[in-house]
């Protein structure tokens, strides 16, 4: 599936991975609709990209965005929030917001564009997840769970829509250098019993992301998923993905969990 004037809708296209994906699709000849909470405030609008307003935590906004987009051939669910904190200290309102943003909003948007894809006999849906969904990390439980959920929706959806020419895939990036460490929401008390270990994890996490792959590398992987005749269920990129997924198949789960923990300074 290539550009040829087809329409792609990319959420969270004002910066980072979303902006890189939108630029890559525009270069391939797609008509690209990129979303932002405030299109008028996009600092560096991309040439060839039209911006639509979208707040994934607001169902009415999701439905208005889908209506404004019209027929969509490619949906890249990229927008989301990165969240940290010991589970017992995560406020429920923050956890609920995260799931509305990272899971329920993208799922609703997918529901709204699928009937048109199915009727036209072609389409692609790509969920931008995280390798943490496959390799969970302490103090990131809410984020890990949201990315595992979106992957679960994608895996189950594949079989439902593949007979109608619609391909569904999840792209799991590892550490990506997009400046997300500066925008991550964090919930840990100053007197938390977990504070020292949390700070150790966070220092390693930020350092890994500073050394991570570029947003453009992730965008190239998303493009592969979009344009593959038969997209794979999962594409992983960065953080030595081929090696670590091979180890995940060969080693006991407990051993893999220890490796992930030690990479982040945890025992």
From TrEMBL:
Keywords: Oxidoreductase
Ketoreductase domain boundaries: 6-174
Molecular function GO labels: oxidoreductase activity
Record Pfam families: adh_short
InterPro entries, A to Z: KR_dom, NAD(P)-bd_dom_sf, Sc_DH/Rdtase_CS, SDR_fam
Entry GO terms, CC: membrane
Source organism, top-level taxon: Bacteria
PROSITE patterns assigned to the protein according to its UniProt record, in alphabetical order: ADH_SHORT
Family: Belongs to the short-chain dehydrogenases/reductases (SDR) family.
Protein name: SDR family oxidoreductase
Organism for this UniProt entry: Streptomyces genisteinicus
Lineage start: Bacteria, Bacillati, Actinomycetota, Actinomycetes, Kitasatosporales
